[in-house]
Amino acid sequence: MNTTKSIPATYGHGTHNDFVIIFDPDDQQSVTTAQTQAICNRQTGIGADGLIRILKREGKWFMDYRNSDGSLAEMCGNGIRVMAKYLVVHGHQGEGIFAINTRDGIKHLRVPAEGDISVNMGKVQDESEEITASQNGHIWNGFNISIGNPHAVVFVEDLNLVGELTDAPIVRPKESYPEGVNVEFVEFISDSELKMRVFERGSGETRSCGTGVCAVAMAATLHTKAKLPARWIVNPPGGRLEVDIDGHNNATLIGPAVLIADHDISKYLVAD
């Protein structure tokens, strides 16, 4: 007889940037690097870009986020919307405005009963350093942007020039990113709309990246020499997101969050 205790988790996504969510407010279910990799493996696990443990620390919700390779990350703009959706749908938090703490500080969200969720992502900083990204035989100049995690943003005439993103693009200067970097390739659709692809450190190419979308919006503002406040529509492969950047460089990310299915992850949490 199988006596393994069921451990529930929920699979969801924000513009097809997908996550496995574990509700663990009392911090009783530790997850190792190997276990995270097993859960996120798309061939043998549930398959996801990252894993979110929902904790409660000092009475506040906390987002314990890991990339699919098990490495810790500061936060995730798409993931935090999915986490907020989970909290409201499962009755742990009322709809409206509330806060979630992350390794990048407290983020405030507006979660309606239906429709898009908005999250104040904090300041998007131009590091005032020119970088280059090499990919598929091309070298592009770009922007070093920080939004609590590092981003290298480059603009291309045609996203098809980027080719297959099976390996991390080479970004220089390397010493500017001692812990690796997320790389965004961006093409203009119009004066206010962009499309992009992203290679996330610790995950590879993903269909969307919330912090990356905000970094792209700031880089586009700099690239076009536009003034703040600014609004951009950004289209990663997974869908459409909006970014508002106010006059103090604070970014608000607006987009959908979807909960898909519940899973029992107990078989992935056996001893390493």
Q: Could you characterize what this model shows?
A:
With 272 residues, the protein is mainly beta. The chain has 2 domains: 8-115 and 257-268, Diaminopimelate Epimerase, Chain A, domain 1 (Roll); 123-255, Diaminopimelate Epimerase, Chain A, domain 1. Helices cover 13% and strands 45% of the residues. It is built from 3 helices and 18 strands. The chain has helices spanning 33-40, 77-89, 210-223; strands at residues 8-14, 17-23, 50-57, 60-67, 96-102, 105-111, 117-123, 125-135, 138-146, 150-155, 170-172, 182-188, 193-200, 204-206, 230-235, 241-245, 250-255, 258-264. The strands form 2 sheets. Strands 5, 6, 7, 8, 9, 10, 11, 12, 13, 14, 15, 16 and 17 form a 13-stranded mixed β-sheet that branches. A 5-stranded mixed β-sheet has the order 4-3-2-1-18. Strand 12 (182-188) and strand 13 (193-200) form a beta hairpin. The longest helix is centred in the last third of the chain and has 14 residues, at 210-223. The model has no long low-confidence stretch (mean pLDDT 96).
